[in-house]
Amino acid sequence: MTALAEPPTDRLTKLRTIGGIGAAMAVTPYLLIKIVWTFGLFVPTEEMGGADWRVINATTAFLAAVGITLALAFSRPWGESLPAWVVVLPVWVGTGLLVPMLLLAPVLGPAAMNRDQEAGSPDFWIYEQILVMISLVGIGVGLPLALAGYARARWPEALSGSIACPEPPGSTRQLQVALARLVAAGCALLGCVKLFWAAGGTFGLDTNRLGQRDLWWQLLSSSTAVWAFIGSWAILVLTAHRSARRFFPPMAAAWVASGMLFSYSVYNLLTLTDMQQPSPELPIAGAFARESGAVLGVMMGLTLLLVLHDRRRALRGPH
Q: Rounded to an integer, what distance in angstroms lies between the CA atom of residue 173 and that of residue 159?
């Protein structure tokens, strides 16, 4: 006989509503700014008025609109009827982008503003960036709160109980363990490389572009290293299936780490265009860090899905 996780509490229900509505309100200024930039209005530089930047702004405006819709869906019962993939994929990418950014925002925000000022951006750009940072911090706080309440109502096994649980018939545990070990080894290597660069190491970097190792680059390198190590630990703990510790902390850590590795690898593709400051890494080293991060993020995410699938079957039974 299996026991289901306890139903959501009133406290989580309130946090779900407050977080969802708060996130939707917070991201609205970001959406409006991106719409304005899409039409080429109030852009800080002539370069950002080009067609390529307008496409980027239109895309991020669409993503912001999706974020608002999801935030509202998380805050209301009707959101529980949405197809799982409609919720999981954008939230995985979104939390991977926003949670690490939220932790770095007090330092990363001013660093970005200083870099743009040195590049000759006008003063009003600073005020626009402040609104963007407020929106990102707001959704970074509100969306996880709303998501926690939503997931507790829809997938209670993902937020409660211990890691140890019975193995259902046809368990994928052997595949989980093999994937987890491969991912953990890759994350450890990537984390060491990123940490080496952030600490001042120059192997793998272009000696002619060492001056581009500004605070922004160092913080993102350090953040990638930290989340790679966290993800390595979390996915190994989850696939061991023996621990009596709570399931939620390593699950959440693996979720954010996998999304972070994937989404920031995609973000770093902008360094290959004129829309982002060139990266100081040598081309082959930059490609290794970027592509391996994306692959490891996807592999970790797939391993986590296998863990959650088997856990759901074990706790809810064959039906």
A: 20
Q: What predicted TM-score, i.e. pTM, was given to this entire model?
A: 0.82
SS3 54: helix
Alpha carbon separation from 31 to 24, 94, 288 (Å, rounded): 10, 15, 33
Query: Measured between alpha carbons, how far is residue 213 from residues 7, 96, 233, 272, 313 in Å?
Result: 49, 23, 28, 16, 48
Q: Which amino acid is at 39?
A: F
The number of beta carbons lying within 10 Å of the beta carbon of residue 125 is 19
Separation CA 258–CA 245 (nearest Å): 21
Three-state SS for 197-225 is: HHCCCCCCECHHHHHHCCHHHHHHHHHHH
User: Tens of pLDDT along 240-273?
Assistant: 877 668 898 999 999 999 999 999 998 887 666 6
Per-residue pLDDT of 17-76, as tens digits, reads 999 999 899 888 888 888 988 888 877 666 667 777 788 888 888 888 988 998 899 888
- Cβ atoms of residues 258 and 304 within 8 Å: yes
CA R_g for the chain = 21
